[in-house]
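= Tokenised fold =
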Amino acid sequence: MSKTNTPSALILGSLLCFGLIMLGNTIGDKLLKMKAMERTVTVKGLAEKEVRANVAIWPIRFTEVDNDLNNLYQTVQTKTDRVVDFLKQQGFSEDEITVALPAIEDRQAQGYVDPNVKYRYAAKISISLYTNNVDLLLTTRTSMLSLAKDGIAISDQDYNSKAQFLFTELNKVKPEMIQSATQNARQVAEKFAIDSDSKLGKIKKASQGQFSINDRDSNTPYIKKVRIVSTLTYYLND
């Protein structure tokens, strides 16, 4: 290489070194910034709301026995009509009442006769009430004892005879509850950011949990507790 080209080569080499240093610094800064962006916090936000059931299903059951099958059928029909009339008098419509066919049991046909069984035939009657008028159903349940004077003993102790209460209007409370769960999660994340001398950034990832609907307690199954837990991940900034 000639002496004339030596200074040019030195300048070119210096410029290349300077460019590489600047490029390295730039890449390093970006890597540091990217690393800082990877600092995150994951929190959960809870929202709960108490609501009243808007649908009630009540299976009304009673049993009749007799040794004469014809008499049994007549008794079943008479008492079934009495229960249906009672429900209509309370304010329920015919569309809300469903009468199932009675289940007749012939105890002698089983091949073994219990000497303690007094009646041969037993009929199990089931009348189902499906209504949106939950308050009316609750009031009616307290009046069912009046049917006892007609010889109708309504069974309500076994599991299959208990009224069911449902809440089917979840879509009406969803937006409000999701917003509440998100706000709760942000409050938790902001507290974490303050405690760690950081600033809360944007949301990196959000996951909505499933809604759950349960009885508030065993004594008031017509009052439901709706619950949702949302999981959110936030960036943390210096």
Summary: Strands lie at 40-52, 55-66, 97-99, 103-106, 121-131, 164-166, 199-208, 212-215, 223-237.
